[in-house]
Amino acid sequence: MQIHVINPNTTRGMTDTIATAAQGIAAPDTRISATQPAHGPVSIESHFDEAISAVGVLEEVMAGERQGVDAYIIACFGDPGLLAARELTRAPVIGIAEAAFHMAALISTRFSVVTTLGRTGIIAEHLLDQYGFRHHCRRVRAAEIPVLDLEADGDAALDRIIGEGRRARDEDGIGAIVLGCGGMADLTDEIAEAVGLPVVEGVTAAVKLAEALAGLGLGTSKVGDLAFPRPKAFTGRFEHLSHGAGLR
């Protein structure tokens, strides 16, 4: 089984962190390939960043279709381009926020999310509503660290995340914590030990869900709104997306 993990931003170090976490949790016969768009934001911290990054995500899915990828993971907690990506393939496509919410709800009746910035916390709240997990989540908390600080100043960032996790444990009446950024993929064990609660991280959760769906023979439905996009011409910089781009 090949799972293609897409980091929607263009920071190579973060892609490597995500790839290591994904491969570390994958089954022995699962092959992880990890990549990032050639163009786009170096980090994703706004609706604008998400909109720009979604095009790169879709191009990566199209490339994966030519390689026969079995499942895809969108490794940004905003799940940018998720439904559009599902339109492009019969393979499962899993966003790490949706994966983490599902897993957290299976092990605890209430959880809180610890993310990077307050403004991205609002985006996470939108996703909780969209995915139907709002009643499971007690609070979305922000450590108020820029995403790239996870790479540039990792120790300080980890301390702030742990501090927010402890406040969530003590104040929110929860049984689990969800980490709200793909760049936290390598921090799960340290945070869980420091906080004393189960910690769900979306990249690793998505890998196990992808393996489960593929193992069950379940893929993206091609009936209804997730059917392949109707072939049509695109112009200008998007001309290469014309006529369905060889979708299968």
Write the layout of secondary structure elements.
Blueprint: E1 2-6, H1 12-25, E2 31-35, H2 47-67, E3 71-74, H3 82-87, E4 93-95, H4 96-107, E5 111-115, H5 118-131, E6 137-142, H6 149-152, H7 154-171, E7 176-179, H8 188-195, E8 199-201, H9 202-215
Parallel strand pairs: 1-2, 1-3, 3-4, 5-6, 5-7, 7-8
Helix pairs in contact: 1-9, 4-9
Report on this model:
The protein contains nine helices and eight strands. It has helices at 12-25, 47-67, 82-87, 96-107, 118-131, 149-152, 154-171, 188-195, 202-215, and strands at residues 2-6, 31-35, 71-74, 93-95, 111-115, 137-142, 176-179, 199-201. A four-stranded parallel beta sheet has the order 2-1-3-4, sandwiched between helices. A four-stranded parallel beta sheet has the order 6-5-7-8, with helices on both faces. Strand 3, helix 3 and strand 4 form a beta-alpha-beta unit. It is globular and about 55 Å long. The chain starts with a strand and ends in a 33-residue tail after the last helix. The model has no long low-confidence stretch (mean pLDDT 94).
Summarize the structure.
With 248 residues, this protein is an alpha/beta fold. 45% of the residues lie in helices and 14% in strands. The protein contains nine helices and eight strands.
- The mean pLDDT is 94
* Rg of Cα set: 17 Å
Please give the largest β-sheet.
4 strands, parallel
Would you report the number of β strands? Answer: 8
Note the run of SSEs as H and E: EHEHEHEHEHEHHEHEH
In DSSP terms (H or I, runs of 4 or more residues), the helix count works out at: 9
SS-based structural class? alpha/beta
Shape annotation? globular
Strand order of the largest sheet: 2-1-3-4
Task: Please mark out the parts with pLDDT under 50 across 5 or more consecutive residues, or reply none.
Answer: none
The fraction of residues assigned to DSSP E strands is 5-15%
- Termini, distance in Å? 18 Å
Helix content: 40-55%
